[in-house]
Amino acid sequence: MTAAGDAALAGGLGPAHGGTVAIAAADLVLASASPRRSALLAGIGVRFAVVPAQLDETPEPAELPRDYVARLALAKARAVAAATGGALPVLGADTTVVCDGRLLGKPVSEADAVAMLMALSGRTHRVFTAVALVRGATAAGVVVETAVTFRELSAAECRAYWRSGEPADKAGGYALQGMGGVFVTRIEGSYSGVVGLPVAETYKLLCDFAIDCGLSRV
After folding, report:
1. Which residues are catalytic?
2. pTM to 2 decimals?
3. For 140-181, how does the pLDDT look when each residue is reduced to its tens digit (9 = 90+)?
4. CATH number of the domain at 3-217, out of 3.20.20.80, 3.30.1050.10, 3.10.310.30, 3.90.950.10?
5. How many angstroms separate the first and last alpha carbons of the chain?
């Protein structure tokens, strides 16, 4: 087990309300280092520990976006379940942005980020997020698709946005919940799914596995 899985993360809510806790006090392991996913999961009252998964995230040849995120979410959950000995159920998640049939990952440079954002400028793209839950030999998951429309952007503001530091670790090169939200004129689907964890679908999945959430403690 990694040190990350054995210690509470700073900034989590206390165990009475859910949030990041030491693994001994957790009901679930989140197989993601994303602070956005941690915040969303804490918001629905789950007591969880964080053990990030380390995987090759290269798409397979001709792999469809829906299949890609579903495969990675499940692989992350299974990898962390194996690493932690299966003591707790594990939640994995993955998000990708798709434009013109191309998967847009995290930008690796300013030029890459600007090219991504200009490709999204004035258009509607799709965001796919998968969540997968593994407990022992049992696994289940769901994929959520959301349509996001951008206003027209200028290359200058895309460069300024890159210099803010926000896009560097975001699929598609933007954060809907941050400054990148100023680019968005319309969303059809799950806001939280674009951020990284569709909370309605995740909550149902947790309930199906009888995992304790905030509403069950009210």
Report:
1. 94
2. 0.88
3. 999 999 999 999 999 999 999 999 999 998 999 999 999 999
4. 3.90.950.10
5. 32
